[in-house]
Design goal:
about 575 residues; alpha+beta; NE0471 N-terminal domain-like; Hypothetical protein af1432; globular
Amino acid sequence: MPDPASTTTPLPTPAPASLPALWLRDNCGCAQCRDPRNGQKLFQITDLPEEPAVATETPVTGPDGAVGWEVVWVPDGHRSHYAASWLAPRRPTADRSAADQRTEDAKTLWQAADLTGALPTAAWADYREDPAVRLRILDAVGRLGFALLRGVPVREGQVTEVAETFGFVRETNYGRIFEVRVEQNPNNLAFTGERITPHTDNPYRDPVPTLQLLHCLANSTEGGDSGLVDGFAAAALLREQDPAAYQVLTRTPVPFRFVDHGGPGEDGAPRAGAEITTQHPLIGTDPGGRIREIRFNNRSIGTLRLPAADTEAFYAAYRGFARLLLRPELRLDFRLTPGDCLIFDNTRLLHARTAFESSGGRHLQGCYADLDGLFSTAAVLRREALDTLAVLFAEQGSAEYFGEAVTQAEHMLQAGALAEADGAPGELVAAALLHDLGHFHGEVTGHQLMEGTDNRHSHTGADWLARWFGPAVTEPVRLHVAAKRYLCAVEPAYFALLSPASVHTLSVQGGPMTAAEAEEFAAHPYGADAVRLRRWDEAAKDPQAPTPGFEHFRPLLASLLEACPPA
């Protein structure tokens, strides 16, 4: 945070003295503590004072408008700056649910009916060209466990090009690419026409490949349909219905084993042998007990060597979980067609297929990748989306606000601050902050609006924001002009609150609503939110009001981008 200046804004929270001192000092971001080029720490934990304490804490506002604190430490007099927007979401808490995006708490668990008509899909061309589409697909893999790209070029090796759009290919003993088709000398049942029940791949590997991609090159055979089961949802059901069995499966280390004796490959070249083993529970949990991994593959389970009672308990639980995984209502069935590429989380989803005629033409190419690369790419895409918004506020937002005494950016920032001070939900704070972005994107400018042509900036802005945010953000934006018309119709005193510029645009935008229009608006699911936004909108035109900068809201926007549902 740059050198701050004093501020008269309300005190930011939390106050530094209320936080663990050593944790706070360890997170100092000044140039003495972190390399400004990469953000990495320049000190060891043992370099810090044994018992640091906050000597003084002063509320400040930086040149970027971010409010926060300047802290002076004892015993060494070190000075630290902490933005309130950084501190608030990171303060120590007993709630560990958001700590690991790999656990069940960061997921949307599902059964097949939950995804009827709502599969996370995108066209390959859109995925390649539009960062917002790419982010939605990658977030779907993180949140739902899978996504399906359509129209991927049907050519050999293309599956690795898909993987490389978000990460790196994980090469295994099956090679960089593996062929899912009938082979004469298969080293895995996947390379036959046999029915394959729900399973995860490579449970014998440590670490297991966390992502799998399957690209369909041909599928003209009878049968060979694909299926997915949400293993986290199934494990949660087991925990609810048979807690004792669930505990057994989370505590019993299971030996997984794969053996390939080698021999001639499909191309005639010798195939190297392999013998891979590891031990893990079928249901892996984190230290807080949250589901984090499923390893389930009946073809790869080795021989347990446990006391008889433990062995019997394991097999009873194992059979119960296997039965649960076969429930039809848990399984999402679909058929891959040429050009489809399925991306799924191999530590969460179990995949399956129906049997097919060996003489038929079914050929998938697959590869493995890892979630860390996917999560990294998604994080970069979110950062770039926020950078785009920051530029809009800094550049187009610096222009006059059509007859008001504040700039367009100041107006939106004030609206966001008013929503925040009013205790509005995060989505509504974001809507207030972003409500006038349509002035920057429409074919009709704000100046033309003032000259008498409605630029429908509420709709333009909502449509643009919908690339990144869900309806709880976009729909109040879409309705905020209609909310002005509504309030002028149902609250006669509201008209007197309008600025002269707002009175002028009211007539251009259609004037007060009719009774029928007002009734329809009031019934809209986001009508009440739009009314709240409108009141902040009208109040956010004070040139003397303390106004936080865009960076103050950035952590909130980042969290909402993470929660954005797939199209």
